[in-house]
Structures are given as structure tokens and as C-alpha cells.
Amino acid sequence: MIRWMIVIFLALVLISWFTPLLRRLGFGRLPGDLRFKAFGRDWNLPFATTIVLSMLASLLGYLI
């Protein structure tokens, strides 16, 4: 179980590092992504971006 926690932590760190690059490429602003303000903060729920990136990662894994 500790391995999965480490993998999830590392994935979140990588995603946070690549978020500015992905925004410049248009990810995070796809039609299925939700963005709203609550409790004085901007919240972003990138559902469509997650699906697209997951499909790209699956295709990359299949090709390798």
C-alpha cells in the first residue's frame, strides 16, 4: 500500500510541474473541464483533460 501512495504522490508532483505547460497547449480549457470560484479560491476540475491525457498515455504505452 505504501508503494501506491508513493506513486500517487509522485504523479501529483509531476502533474503540478507540467500544469503551466499543459495550459499553454490548451489543456485545462477543454469543453468538459469545470472551473469555478468557491471559498475565495479558484477551483479547477479537469475531467475532459484527464480523459484525453489518459488516452494519450494508454496509446503511448501500447506503442512502446
TrEMBL record:
Q: Name one Pfam family in it.
A: DUF2905
Q: Which InterPro entries match?
A: DUF2905
Keywords in alphabetical order: Membrane, Transmembrane, Transmembrane helix
Domain of life where this protein originates:
Bacteria
Regions that span the bilayer: 47-63
Q: What name does the UniProt record give this protein? A: DUF2905 domain-containing protein
